[in-house]
Q: What sequence folds into this?
């Protein structure tokens, strides 16, 4: 399957986003309302990987304080007025779309967009053994911040906080 492309997320995509999330992150459930709120708060950080038969991936990112990790399956309420960092909440691909080079172009597109806004870094929490993948995308684990330990607990035992400077 290579007939897909990244485009800005629309409200009509949210059911497809929630379906991909359920497959990609079965142990990290988030309600559709969480995706809808992030789209409403920061549409410039919400994208879908669209295929002829529907949504096969998505990326959600938004301004957030460095070192802060939003709890899973929770509404944010609002975003910081200014933030030097952007939190990459999710990058999820349906298993049929994995391994085809779809992620890197979107990560680089996001990085370029954020640099133009003056953002200094992208941060994320890697789960499901994905640290090596994120390292190939230019992210590095943050190991020297003990305050992150408690924040990562709800993400599972292998959760790792990573950052990428811009």
A:
């Amino acid at each position: 399957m290579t007939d897909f492309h990244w485009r800005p997320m629309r409200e009509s995509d949210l059911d497809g986003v929630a379906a991909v999330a359920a497959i990609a992150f079965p142990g990290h459930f988030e309600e559709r309302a969480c995706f809808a709120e992030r789209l409403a708060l920061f549409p410039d950080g919400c994208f879908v990987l669209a295929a002829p038969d529907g949504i096969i991936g998505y990326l959600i990112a938004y301004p957030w304080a460095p070192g802060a990790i939003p709890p899973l399956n929770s509404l944010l309420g609002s975003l910081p007025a200014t933030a030097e960092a952007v939190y990459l909440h999710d990058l999820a691909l349906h298993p049929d779309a994995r391994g085809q080079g779809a992620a890197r172009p979107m990560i680089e597109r996001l990085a370029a967009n954020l640099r133009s806004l003056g953002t200094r870094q992208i941060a994320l929490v890697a789960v499901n053994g994905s640290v090596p993948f994120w390292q190939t995308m230019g992210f590095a684990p943050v190991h020297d911040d003990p305050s992150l330990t408690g924040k990562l607990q709800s993400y599972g035992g292998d959760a790792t906080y990573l950052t990428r400077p811009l």
